[in-house]
Write a structure and sequence with these properties.
This protein is α+β, with helices and mostly antiparallel strands. It has eleven helices and 13 strands. Bound molecules: alpha-D-galactopyranose. The site of alpha-D-galactopyranose has 10 residues, from helix 5.
Length: 390
């Protein structure tokens, strides 16, 4: 991970595109870590993510033609395409995220012109920290500023989600783009994914620190398993609706969770519904505990969230479970869970500040022994949402 300065990014930009008399405009969009509330967003439930200081940098400059020129410093990749001839990259390349956002602007009949873009990101790839939402949102915010298209942050969040669903082909919910757009320093976002009402809640961790641990497991099958879970939830809605008409699982409040026992015959589908309904309850409770500064209680709910994602929703796997259950045996750890879609990616743990070195050393070594993989550790700061690079 690195934090690129604006000067370094501009210098690279000039090396690529020349014309040093005309400065690019610089933007930054964070990634996100979800503290609790997993696989609830597409069930119109509650989530509690925050934006983090790892993200996507973008230098961008208008030209006087109709061409999009695009480079990234992360891979050896460049592309030139006409604004009127944007095509999806069928190899599923990351470039579909910015291109999808261009398409969203054009579909809304917003006027764009030619641009030169240089991206650079420090979110580890496919780690469940929303590098895709970060790329989408930095593109949206930059185009909105450069071409004065007058979009609100919520417009851009929805367009970025739509770009990911319809252009990049990943059927995600709204949590990631929302967190990346609406993040604020040292605050987490308590979002109702049905009404899109949200509250920014101060994250005061006193002697504790959030530690993100990357399994570095290659995420395979994530998209197909993710879609499978979405259909299972739809099936649960259909089953429940035979007696109680609902459109989304999150309409069932935690105190009515018992109704699924009678209404859902299939045991797997019942467990999926159990996760979603109980997870919504945990988010509400966790936010309340955080406001009361009860970090132990908050950590306990993080643990319960992971257990439910493992047993009921089955989206964890050996690597995530090893990190989480070993973490919980270590001194100074009061909560540990997977974050993001699962099947690989990262965990998030609440660790006492004096025990972080021990945590990294012990967990790294046992994880290596058990899985053969090397974990990476990050200490994120909770950061503001997408905007100009300050
Ligand atoms: C991915 C998706 C989100 C959300 C999480 C699981 O990150 O992009 O919309 O569904 O998985 O909570």
């Amino acid at each position: 991970m690195y934090n690129m300065t604006g000067g370094q990014l501009s210098e690279k930009f000039f090396e690529l595109y020349g014309n040093r008399n005309n400065n690019p405009v610089l933007f930054f969009s964070p990634g996100r870590v979800n503290l609790i509330g997993e696989h609830t967003d597409y069930n119109r439930g509650f989530v509690f993510p925050c934006a983090i200081n790892f993200g996507t940098y973008l230098a961008i400059r208008k030209t006087d033609d109709e061409i999009i020129k695009l480079h990234t410093l992360n891979f050896n990749f460049s592309l030139e395409t006409s604004l009127t001839d944007i095509k999806r990259d069928e190899d599923g390349e990351w470039v579909n995220y910015p291109l999808g956002v261009f398409m969203e602007f054009l579909n809304k009949k917003l006027t764009l012109g030619g641009v030169e873009l240089l991206f650079s990101g420090d979110i580890p790839n496919a780690a469940g920290l929303s590098s895709s939402a970060s790329i989408e949102m930095v593109t949206a915010v930059a185009l909105n500023e450069l071409f004065q298209t007058g979009l609100s942050m919520l417009d851009m969040v929805m367009m970025s989600q739509s770009a990911e669903n319809n252009f990049a082909g990943m059927n995600c919910g709204i949590m990631d783009q929302f967190a990346v757009g609406f993040g604020e320093k040292m605050k987490a976002i308590f979002l109702n994914c049905d009404t899109l009402e949200y509250e920014l809640v101060p994250v005061e961790l006193n002697d504790y620190q959030l530690v993100i641990t990357n399994t570095n497991k290659r995420r395979e099958l994530t998209d197909s398993k993710y879609n499978e879970r979405r259909s299972e939830c739809e099936r649960a809605v259909t089953d429940i609706s035979s007696e109680v008409r609902i459109n989304h699982l999150s309409e069932i409040n935690i105190d009515r969770i018992g109704i699924i026992d009678n209404l859902i015959d299939n045991e797997t589908i019942r467990r999926r519904a159990h996760h979603v309904i109980s997870e919504n309850g945990r988010v509400v409770q966790a936010v309340d505990l955080l406001k009361k500064n009860d970090l132990i209680g908050f950590g306990h709910l993080m643990n319960e969230s992971h257990d439910s994602l493992k047993d009921d929703y089955e989206v964890t796997g050996f690597e995530l479970d090893t990190l989480v259950y070993e973490a919980r045996t270590l001194d100074g750890v009061i909560g540990s869970r997977m974050t993001g879609a699962g099947f690989g990616g990262c965990t998030v743990s609440l660790v006492h500040k004096t025990k972080i070195n021990n945590f990294i050393e012990k967990l790294g070594s046992i994880y290596k022994k058990k899985t053969g993989l090397t974990a990476d550790f990050y200490l994120p700061a909770i950061s503001p949402g997408a905007g100009y690079l300050l």
